[in-house]
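Homework help board

Subject: predicted structure for assignment chain

Our instructor gave us this sequence and asked us to write out the predicted structure in token form, then describe one feature. I got the tokens but I'm not sure how to describe them. Can anyone check?
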Amino acid sequence: MARKEHKLTPKVIGTMLYSESDGILLETSAWYDWLEGHTTFYLESPDGSFTARQEARVGGSFWYAFRRVRRKLYKVYLGRSIDLTRERLQQVACRLAERTQG
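My token output:
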């Protein structure tokens, strides 16, 4: 049986998004264009980490951050694609880290 090729989740580290094909600088038009065409990425930072997913809701599409710790899932609202700045991503990483400690 042929093995399916596994697609890696794009990852944000520092000021860059790394996907299978290239690196994209956050807060550029390429970043916001990429967000509009994708539904998930992973953020890794010293402050914390999470998986971001875009969800369709009444009124448009919105991003949420998810982190699972000891079988409990934590969810924090990130905003619309235009709201996803490096500062906002770091704020949410810190917030999730605080909520999941203890």
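Reply (TA_rk): Your tokens look well-formed. For the description, you could write something like this. The first helix runs from residue 29 to 37. That's the kind of observation they're looking for.
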